[in-house]
Write a structure and sequence with these properties.
Helix content: 25-40%
Strand content: 5-15%
Structural class: alpha/beta
Shape: globular
CATH topology of the largest domain: Aspartate Aminotransferase, domain 2
Bound molecules: pyridoxal-5'-phosphate
Order of helices and strands: EHHEHEHEHEHEEEHHHEEHEEH
Largest sheet: 7 strands, mixed
């Protein structure tokens, strides 16, 4: 060990990011889609991978042309916004897309800004690219409005503003006028992370509609959640071609394997069955929010596939008590809150039974919580 050079000063003592991967019956801690691919889809993936294997002696299509065209078709269907395939940039999860964005538009001496509580990975993208990162708090109900963004930008426009909608871990979506106002005020890049867009409630609009008018806007999406493809690692950015050109500069060549591209295309071809499950998860989510509130707990309105709820006097104890009952949730957001991903109807029922036991325990809830049930 003595011969090992010390790592970068700013990395010493840090732990790698990641929620515990604990093998318990009900895992509701990482916002995965609880439905495994159908037998039919898994067969189709097998065939597509076998086909891709025949060309594995060659590097993959560096520009993922076929996948980008499929994604463009899907987006037109999903959001009513038709963008050319060249406006789409796929990579290994939206995590890698964000690294490309920070690599191209962040960097030493540059500033990125997010609105807390929010996705903790933004801090890591900033760290890895030597970008400064600052968070500004959301409102009391975790909402974000145009005035708050403007106030945050009074000292000067950050090089990257990240607006997460629906936000993780709160589930909060933001009105489009916040994005429009941010784009108008910013001299840098504005990223709207729409990882959970497909779970939004009726009346919530995607920022895709704003791309035409805002040349510095980037919308990011992922197949990890709605498409039940977290293990496939496919995410993508949608932006004007000049922005995509910048992302192409910092990507590693052949970043997206031929196998990944093939798997993603099969999932897109199965979107009817996959998105039917999203509809089921949305209604399960709404029922779960109503159940939590009827039990006297606080649950934040959610446009995503998870719910932030509380408040617990000692949330770690509540987390452990749920785990002892076979249900894994996430300690996320401010002190007192827990986040639960929406599972299958059976998993949600198990969660409700376990939670009812837990919040009945002495001293579990903050005073005033959990009293109505
Ligand atoms: C889950 C999640 C992502 C998706 O990450 P992938 O790398 O595509 O799996 C992106 N942003 C937020 C806010 C998320 O919660």
């Amino acid at each position: 060990m003595d011969s090992l050079p010390l790592p970068r000063e700013d990395l010493r003592g840090l732990a790698p990011y990641g929620a515990p991967q604990i093998d318990v019956p009900v895992r509701l801690n990482t916002n995965e889609n609880p439905f495994a691919p159908s037998e039919e889809m898994s067969q189709a993936v097998g065939h597509a991978v076998a086909e891709a294997t025949r060309g594995l002696n060659r590097y993959p299509d560096r520009e993922a042309h076929a996948l980008r065209a499929d994604l463009a078709d899907y987006l037109a269907e999903e959001s009513g916004v038709r963008v050319p395939a060249e406006w789409i940039w796929p990579a290994n999860g939206s995590n890698e897309v964000m690294m490309h964005i920070f690599g191209a538009f962040g960097g030493p001496g540059r500033l990125a800004m997010g609105f807390a509580p929010t996705y903790s990975m933004y801090e890591q993208y900033a760290r890895e690219t030597f970008t400064k990162y600052r968070t500004v708090n959301r409102g009391p109900d975790f909402e974000l409005d145009a005035a708050m963004v403007m106030a945050a930008m009074i000292g000067g426009s950050p090089d990257i503003v990240v607006l997460t909608s629906p936000n993780n871990p709160t589930g909060t979506a933001m009105p489009l006028d916040v994005v429009t106002a941010t784009c108008a005020m910013s001299t840098g890049i504005v990223v709207v992370d729409e990882a959970y867009a497909e779970f939004r409630r009726p009346g919530t609009t995607s920022s895709l509609a704003l791309l035409e008018a805002n040349p510095r806007l980037i919308v990011t999406r992922t197949m990890s959640k709605a498409f039940a493809l977290a293990g496939g690692r496919i995410g993508y950015a949608i932006a004007r071609p000049e922005v995509i050109e910048a992302l192409r500069i910092v990507r590693l060549p052949y970043h997206l394997s031929a196998v990944s591209q093939a798997v993603a295309r099969v999932a897109l071809a199965h979107r009817t069955e996959l998105l039917a499950q999203v509809a089921l998860l949305r209604s399960e989510r709404d029922e779960l929010v109503a159940w939590l509130r009827a039990a006297g707990l606080t649950a934040v309105d959610s446009d995503a596939n998870f719910i932030l709820f509380g408040r617990f006097a000692d949330r770690h104890r509540a987390w452990q008590e749920l785990l002892d009952r076979g249900v894994l949730v996430r300690e996320a957001g401010p002190e007192g809150w827990l986040r639960v991903s929406v599972g299958t109807p059976d998993e949600n029922a198990t969660f409700r039974t376990a939670l009812a036991e837990v919040f009945a325990l002495d001293g579990m809830m903050e005073p005033g919580e959990g009293s109505a049930g």
